[in-house]
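Give me the fold.
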Amino acid sequence: MAMLQAGIIPVTPFQQNCTILFDPDTKQGVIVDPGGDVEVILETVRENEITLQEIWLTHGHIDHAGGASELRDNLGIKVIGPHEDDLPLLQLIEQRGQGFQIPGVRNVTPDRFLKEGDKLSFGEHEFEVYHCPGHSPGHVIFFNRSQNFAHLGDVLFHGSIGRTDLPGGNHQQLLDSIRDKVLPLGDDVGFICGHGPGSQIGEERRTNPFLRGL
């Protein structure tokens, strides 16, 4: 099995880490959290000759899901995730776009919602799905066990954790998700997050001030 590859495209004024996960041999892949700037995403995909199989969403905030509907229309592929508890957020994307003055974003209804224990895959690369509420009610993360890699969305960052002051956020619930779902994945697991640089779970366990006591 080829090593999983990841490319990050910072999109929208929020500089969200829209992520392309792909197999370097087959050039098949998926895109995680296309928050907007869809033309930039499409151009990057074309330049790198990647064939996207699906769109995966970690959660329903505008900066992560705002471009999913347009990208689905352009490529004819399915939108998968997040958990159904984020459906109200997905139906407010256009309203949020007006408030933040971000044009072109659209509401989206996924082709499939995800739940704890689901598995996703493209080619030989399989990901386990964990429901990790707190930043949003329906947030999910994706874990590739064979390559010790996770995409954590806005649950855990390098040196920080996700915001919980947005609608549906819950600080204690987020800490519980990190303690019960993220940290047990293992200290040697590297991760990409929704904003900023990635890290390793062990590094965050040791140095992240928000994880003290967990």
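The helical segments are 38-47, 62-65, 68-75, 87-90, 93-100, 171-182, 201-207.
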